[in-house]
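User: Hello! My lab partner asked me to get a predicted holo structure for this protein. The small molecule is pyridoxal-5'-phosphate, SMILES included with the sequence. Please write out the structure tokens.
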Amino acid sequence: MKIDSLVIHGGISSDKITGAVNVPVYLSSTFKQPEFGVNLGYEYARTGNPTRESVEKLISDLEGGVRGFAFASGMAATSTVLNLFKSGDRILINNNLYGGTFRVIDKVFSNFGLKYDIVEDFNTFDFSTISEDVKGVFIETPTNPLLSITDIKRVAEEAKKRNLTVIVDNTFMTPYFQNPLSLGADIVVHSATKYLGGHSDVVAGLAVTNSTEIAERLAFLQNSIGAVLPPFDSYLLVRGIKTLSVRLDKHADNAQKIAEYLKAHEAIEEVFYPGLKDHPGHEIQKTQARGFGGVVSFKLKEGYDFKKFINSLELITFGESLGGIESLLCHPASMTHAALPVELRERIGIKDNLLRISVGIENFEDLRDEIEQAIINSKEEK
Ligand SMILES: Cc1ncc(COP(=O)(O)O)c(C=O)c1O
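Assistant: Hello! Below are the structure tokens for the protein in complex with pyridoxal-5'-phosphate.
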């Protein structure tokens, strides 16, 4: 099946018992065992619940893995996956990652002895220089919020030679546009709160692997740590995923137009969108993904006040998150990426004039007119 059929028919497409076309919300924390030593596939809902299983099987099919896991948030997915490492291990990470991912590595896992190195550019990085203690690579591509592109195949090939586990956060692309496992990654993680859920009504995380050995360890960690996705949220997530293809086509179409409009605008210093031909990652993106996604970041020129810009938005919601059907604008320096050290933020360009739009599926002209008005309103008087 092609991906636009798979989002609808992958996983478990109907309820085993009743034939209901939607797997019901099984609100049961435990399951009757008919006799000693026998169960019907489920024992206790932290370990497994049929509604959660439906989203786990679906994401596994979509990412081309052997097993999927659903968690209470993207951070719960990432944190559980990071537990594959042990004290004294070191991982390599992108220089711009979602702030919460950086925070959990820098401020939580470091307390348990996990070390990390920031790699400025994985596309040119010389892997022969890494130390013996490096055991894994954690990348986002495109990155949040600067939309830098990492060549997943290159990283995976270099990592394989050195026995490193490659983890890719595929939140921005979703399996509709990109399948990191087919490019050599070992594990994919998602903040399913974003495009997979798609309607800003559920917080969820997913992980998928194509290694049976890693799958066994993740199942153990998921059950041991217990940050699992509840049944109702699992149901909402399956419901969201079913329309992924139509939503993402529209998100990406609108985003391309917004990026081109901003690029040509005199008030804009820089636009970050991999769909622009002069984006440094454009060619790599074309080879490893089937689209450019729905997130566009941009910098206002001097003389335009970012607070006035934000305060004049009406149609576009000012708030954290991304990937919902409604357009959402955030100010990374004070919101999603506040957890990054100021020095790192400044160095990579997450400054006050940087804004990130998660372009929704509204009418493009309405969005463009709203941005145009916000730019006019943000112009400082001389
Ligand atoms: C790329 C990326 N990864 C992970 C996360 C964390 O996901 P959650 O908020 O669902 O915990 C986010 C959240 O913004 C994100 O943008």
